[in-house]
UniProtKB/TrEMBL annotation, chains A, B, C, D:
Residues 5-125 form the Gfo/Idh/MocA-like oxidoreductase N-terminal domain. It comes from Secundilactobacillus odoratitofui DSM 19909 = JCM 15043. This is Myo-inositol 2-dehydrogenase. GO terms for molecular function: nucleotide binding; oxidoreductase activity. InterPro entries: Gfo/Idh/MocA-like_OxRdtase_N, GFO_IDH_MocA-like_dom, Myo_inos_IolG, NAD(P)-bd_dom_sf. Residues 133-253 form the GFO/IDH/MocA-like oxidoreductase domain.
């Protein structure tokens, strides 16, 4: 067995708890800290199997035994905690997006510290670790479909989020489309240079009050001359709809939705099949497991992480372009270059 | 049995011959004329079962017995023959597109004569009569998926056409994308108001010589606020790839490719399934049959045709917008209104 | 174009009419005779395009111009007309089964005359010409799945036939299971040596009155040591259910049902897909076309037919074994050898 | 949270370890004992998280704190340990089969003690808890497909087991077909009354040395008049092939193989899809989890177990009938009645 990585988990809401359960199953992880602003005696009882259950994340960062932290706090706190963690020489797994408001120049400063301290920083673009999408990614890289020419992703959530939650996690481009933007760039192996996006409130017009949309359709161009199409919806009544297709000079690869059953019913009315899985937690169960697994492996074996700070910046630039394109009604250029 | 409609077929190239074979199987059609510029003694022998085999289409139009004509000549002659046929009081089935170069104002004048003479004019948007797409169309109209919000079509040809042929039938937007533009408008039941299209020569750079592209990805908006995404390629190595998806407030309908087999092979290497049908002739066999069938029915029973002159104009406007958007690099507004 | 084969069609009920329509589409067929006991003036009008419309099949056989006949009369007349046709030196396509009651020794005498006169005799085992099953057959022959070990067929009709009709066409083993028996033997390339069949009236107990069953499940053994499983039902409420699976040392080939659509509906209730095609006429449309086509080709090019008289005898032996096994409650040996 | 059940695990080979890992994830289980004949200091280190790691199962049974045991030892020891556990008043989960050699009369005596002591005894027919098969089972019970008439199962292992292992776990009917026999009885809700089975060594003729076969095809009859078909193979080169189909008066339910991917590749050669999962451990991962979960729940909430001792006896009777039928070449009656 490999050595155990001493880890602290900062932020234990719904998603944090998901990571907590996954961490428990990993033989090379020694979970030392649970840290959350809501920690009280009840928590200490529930997480009795974890040595330290604390409220203040600085306690985690101050412990010299801790090698890596998972940051699963609310989005607006990501940048600050990442900065502190980098200064404290901890390897970092951070949920996406890196930030909703921090200017790119400040993000770059943080990344410089990460780099200077020889730390791993992995962003939670979990879809990169979904077995289906990963399989496509790897086969595209191997040239199985030749030179990629068109990439398409569909992402549709099963229901509209609460407006208060949206304010915290970000509007559709920043919370949701950003996953597709990262995915198409990842699949094509080329940076985005232009986006034209249409957005509207076809489901819930009151989203306009918080400057948000519920439906997005966009076309984008990559540095290598290829094209991408993305469509998003906040509400697919039939379940969580997540598909990817890459078309190239030698063929096509596509991933259909994952269903929870292969059972088929035939009656005098119609054939019936089960719907896609209902929500991201079940759909991306393996992806969430794999992303932490790969982060731990990258730290222990000193290998590149699957999605780093530059990926975060690139996705954020694209999300900003989507937002602007919808609002200004014109194509927005995206800078494909990056230098620390 | 219903009465037989006396019909003349004008233009008998590859597609004309396809219609010829379909006409033979229809009990309510009395095919009286084969007309083509290439007609010679050989033709008269081959079509011995047809009473008249002639070179000049005026002979067909001058015969007072003929009630309807099918115009399957080269695209640049469509407008002229339609005009002559309308003046001669014949019902008209015309292959799409109506025209590559005729200004819309002239087309409108022709449509006025068609209307004034109480004639049917059906345009050859065959996909409207494909059983799969028709099924989706009808269920969308019935409200099965609620209010439609996103429509997506994929059309990919199996190989790049010869440049000389492209010059005759039109570049990608006018010969190929026009089908998708008609289809998305048909599915949504709403006119297109804006298109932003990206195009490139990712397959054959020499297409630039004739001002054409081989790959198109576009986003468009409908008058009712909904959105559309289209992607086209001149060369899908795996076959003719034609898919449609309509997403709405109450569900989603999609049509996958039609394969020529349900046979599955499982070996120690992988499971294998047959590819899509190889080319439009086999893929849309039923659609071609159905469109003529529905045209004949519309004439005999005096009912509306499935795709009329206004549909042709709307599709053409959209194709022009695609062409302009690619060339000018900006979104192009499309006029959704029409009055004769 | 190849020369045209002068053909007479004897028996024009539902299935005969199906063949009639297919014959019309074949350029190498010159249909000279329509022959049916019910022929009257109405028929002569309906089949005005056929030179001779007659009541007595001897008229067809007496015409020296006629090279081949299709026998699509009621089952009990097959053997007699085949014998007369063979004596009149006509190539013969005969619907299965060859006979319900004629002893095998008499059948053998007829086959001897067919052979002595160098005639083709093709039996209407249409499923052999179904594109899916044919594809499996050919790939099994090529060794794609290695040595075949298990073959399985499912055949389920959409509704129970009328008892009077059953009396004419034969009980379940002789009218229906016989297709599966021919198919499994064809797929395995080995003769059946033993059958154990269970049958019952799970759907319509009144079938016992005519000594019939509505449900059959059987296991059989082939001369080469491999095994087969067949299940039949007279009533699948969801449509005509026809599947074949061949399992071998190097893999498996299976053909699923053919559906009339690739359209999928997703709603908040369930995903829905279209059912199998509803009835044998639509399901085996291509098979019926192909079998006549292949018969005509076999005659014109003097090649072996796809299913001959020996195949008919072998299928009949197996059907008798099924019938006996159900009635006697024990495995029945089947003689795999045959000599004219 | 519900109370925790104190559990001992007896037998920790490959399958025992599988259960061990599943037990760790269950919040209502307090695993107190690991017991295996091979236990040494190395084991004590590996299972340091378990309070007691012992060699002799009597130590587990003697601990009054222990409420339930899981028996995952070699098959020949099952009956003895179950008897001892029942006498020690422990609830029992026992891997199938109950026994290879113990006469049914002795088994009945053990079941009487289990009953007299008000204990749960659950047999490891894991497929009953597979989500797909369970879904079919429940829908059949609800009458979704009306009255069931035909049930079919296919079970094919990916490779031939080692002969020494076969000697320990039982020949094909007792180790493998027994699962299908239990499944068809479970699905139909009716006891088996007759079996006719064909078996052969089509893959590995040397299996004859240990009186075993590698291929089985059988037909069986149920007490309610319906029929079943089962086919088994020791070697499907494409993976672990497990399918179930139930056909009834109102429709059909079937479960296809579970694949590990929805990714599809289209190239100029063919479409390719991923194969079934490779082996029972991955295919039935959820089933194994669910069966222990349901056992724990049955004990804590005092509800019936999903598969009990009578089920074990019924499956064993059927497996014996399969074995006899193959060897004697005739249908074997199975007694559908049972009384303690």
């Amino acid at each position: 067995m490999t050595r155990k990585l001493k880890v602290g988990l900062i932020g234990v809401g719904r998603q944090g708890h998901n990571h907590y359960e996954n961490l428990l199953t990993m033989p090379d992880v020694d979970l030392q800290y649970i840290c959350d602003l809501k920690v009280d005696d009840e928590w200490k009882k529930e997480y009795a199997n974890v040595p330290h259950v604390v409220k203040d994340y600085h306690e985690v960062l101050d412990d010299p035994e801790i090698e890596a932290v998972l940051i699963v706090t609310s989005t607006d706190t990501h940048a600050g905690i990442v900065l502190d963690a980098a200064k404290a020489h901890k390897h970092i797994f951070c949920e996406k997006p890196f930030s909703l408001t921090t200017p790119e120049s400040e993000v770059r400063e943080i990344l410089k510290i990460v780099d200077a301290n020889h730390l791993k920083l992995q962003m939670g673009f979990n879809r990169r670790m979904d077995p289906q999408f990963r399989d496509i990614y790897e086969r595209v890289r191997k040239g199985v479909i030749g030179s990629p020419q068109i990439v398409k992703t569909t992402s549709r959530d099963p229901f509209v989020l609460d407006k208060e939650l949206i304010k915290r996690v970000g509007t559709l481009p920043f919370d949701f489309t950003i996953h597709d933007l990262d995915m198409v760039r990842y699949m094509m192996g080329s940076n985005i240079t232009e986006i034209y996006a249409k957005g509207g409130t076809l489901i819930d017009p009151t989203l306009k009050e918080i400057d948000d949309v519920d439906t997005i359709a966009l076309v984008l161009e990559f540095e290598n001359g290829s094209f991408g199409l993305i469509d998003n919806s906040r509400q697919a009544v039939y379940g969580y709809d997540e598909r990817v297709e890459v078309f190239g000079s030698e063929g096509m690869l596509k991933a259909e939705n994952v269903s929870n059953s292969t059972v088929e019913l035939y009656t005098d009315k119609q054939e019936e099949k089960k719907n896609p899985l209902p929500i991201f937690m079940s759909r991306y169960h393996e992806a969430y497991l794999n992303e932490i697994h790969s982060f731990v492996g990258a730290v222990i074996e000193d290998k590149p992480v699957v999605a780093n700070g530059v990926d975060a910046i690139m996705a954020q630039r694209a999300a900003i372009a989507v937002d602007q394109s919808i609002k200004l009604g014109k194509p927005i250029k995206v800078d494909p270059t990056f230098e620390l």
